[in-house]
Amino acid sequence: MIYLFYGTDVEKTRAKAFEWVAKARTKEPNLAYARLAREELSDAALEDAALSGGLFVARLLVLIDDPFPAARAANDEEESGETGTASVLEEHLDALAASDNAIVILAPKLPAAKAKKIAAKAKMEYKYDKPASREVERGFNSNLVNALSARSRDKLWLEINRALSAGDAPEMLHGLLHWKARDLMEKGGRAWEPQEARSLSLALIELLQNSRRGGLDLGLSLERFALSV
Questions:
Q1: pLDDT band at 86 (very low <50, low <70, confident <90, very high)
Q2: Among the three residues 137, 163, 197, which one is the final residue of a domain in this structure?
Q3: Contact 57, 32 (CB under 8 A)
Q4: Distance (Å, rounded) from C-alpha 106 to C-alpha 18?
Q5: Dihedral of alpha carbons 187, 128, 93, 120, sign
Q6: Which domain holds residue 167?
Q7: What are the tens digits of pLDDT across the range 120-167?
Q8: Would you say 35 and 208 are in contact if contact means Cβ atoms under 8 Å apart?
Q9: How far is residue 70's CA from residue 179's CA, in Å, rounded to a whole number?
């Protein structure tokens, strides 16, 4: 089953998707949860997302986070082998839609043609657009992403701790930080050179993978990461 979150309001779309995931995990505690970043998408990963289950885990909840690269970053992503991730996902849409697992596709600023294609196969779609008539304030946890953008170690560490203390899931914070890292790759920033932003993105992927493999506390890993920025 596919649940699609998209729209021009990037922050609200991300916030609503992670809120949905949190509620689903509370409602069904036995769900096994995994987040797949764009760089982790492959035939094998998507087949596992569609088909995995077992004796002790009846269903999976998989968040596919921002699978479609921005058009302006296409040339950069060709070099890193990311151009195929979008087509790989589209090739598996039927299997994901037919799966008993809950597949959340989080794709802010999704082009209309792709949105229509995925929405046709989704069980539910959630669209969050910015009002056309006025500019809205930056939404969910802007202090966190602004601290990363400014490369402020102390402020980033403080915002991570504030968010964790407020009950935000570490996975949600990691997802937001990784989104910002990719945003810096695509748009640039005063505190980050393009290659540094790419290294930042890769470091966040490695951090999450190490946390999964080693059973490390993701919240603590994020705190340590903040002090290394």
A1: low
A2: 137
A3: yes
A4: 9
A5: negative
A6: 141-220
A7: 999 999 999 987 644 434 335 889 999 999 999 999 999 999 888 888
A8: yes
A9: 12
Nearest to 21 by CA among 13, 116, 83, 11: 13
Give yes or no: residues 64 and 104 share one domain. yes
Is the same domain home to 113 and 191? no
Q: Is residue 228 part of a domain?
A: no
Which of 95, 116, 137 represents a domain boundary (last residue)?
Answer: 137
- pLDDT band with cut points at 50, 70 and 90 for residue 206: very high
Residue 226 domain-assigned? no
- Tokens 């036995």 label which residue? 30
6 near 13, Cβ under 8 Å?
yes
**Distance, C-alpha 85 to centroid of its chain:** 14
Q: Is residue 127 part of a domain?
A: yes
- Output the CA torsion sign for 194, 195, 200, 206: positive
Cα(151)–Cα(157) distance, rounded to whole angstroms? 11
For residues 88 and 196, state if they share a domain.
no
Q: How many independent structural domains does the chain possess?
A: 2
Q: Compute the distance between CA of residue 62 and CA of residue 32 in angstroms, rounded to an integer.
A: 8
